[in-house]
Amino acid sequence: MAKVETSKTSLLVNKKTSTWTQMKKMKLLYIMLLFPAVMLFIFNYLPMYGVIISFKNFSPGLGIWESPWNNFDHFKRLFTDFMFIRALKNTIIISLLKILISFPAPIIFALLLNEIRNQKFLKVTQSISYLPHFMSWVILSAMIIEVFSPQRGVINYLITMFGGDPINFLSSKVFFVPVILITDIWKEIGYGAIIYIASIASIDPALYEAAEMDGAGRFKKMIHVTLPSIMPMVIIMFILRLGGILNAGFDQILNLYNPLVYEVADIIDTYVYRSGLEQFQFDYATAVGLFKNVIGIIFILGANAIIRRKSEHGIW
């Protein structure tokens, strides 16, 4: 027994020594990692201290610790506040629509790009599709407002040219959400396809050769070889997307919506923005944000657990 314990101890010591040796060899990489880690801690973890005010009747004059506790009043208020319930409903609807419609778009786009054989055309297509991602929603919103303008927009010009009446898309409860979905796809489809293109590039060419020997054409190879091969990556991205189920696109909606479409467009993030920064209800807005983040964690943990039971794929 003593020999076994001695051997286990020596193995642990050797393992620790080898790990430390490897870290010393890669010290420059660890130093490079240190800076983003410090920034992450300062800007993402230290501000979590402020979450405390969601449990208090916060007064800037008293400060965080001196403000009185509120016995969870803000969380009780959530489910009796009509504005919050409406924002929650709109957030879930828009998020689910984005998952159903926007999430598959980069996957389909990556599969189609993989079938392009002309390299010049492929590079031009990729460059054009990537460009909107690197532009802020402030700039893109100005372009979208002009395109959908009822007086001077291209879309309404085509509608009137064919005998129709101009439509104010961004002030219509019927058309606002479809505009949100279409513009979201347009902005992110190219950049979102990059990770799937990288996964496709790592597929063993022998699989395609075997499929060709079995008589498979380009479409069948896409369906039976390419798509199953990138499915682990699709699953991981889907789990991460579910974690943001209550993120319906704050920047996009804030720059495009107006009071006429609050009924269908007001989401949790815009509600928090108005409550916190416009109405100065910092404690209540923090409680709403905390509720949203807890729901996101529950979704991501639940989705990962379910998928791990059904398959070998998952985040952890």
TrEMBL record:
PANTHER family tied to this protein: BLL4140 PROTEIN
Classification of source organism: Bacteria, Bacillati, Bacillota, Bacilli, Bacillales
Protein name (database record): Protein lplB
Gene3D superfamilies cross-referenced by the UniProt entry: MetI-like
CDD domains per the UniProt record, alphabetical: TM_PBP2 (cd06261)
InterPro entries noted in UniProt: MetI-like, MetI-like_sf, UgpAE/MalFG_permease
GO BP: any one term: transmembrane transport
Keyword terms: Cell membrane, Membrane, Transmembrane, Transmembrane helix, Transport
Domain ABC transmembrane type-1: 88-303
Pfam families cross-referenced by the UniProt entry: BPD_transp_1 (PF00528)
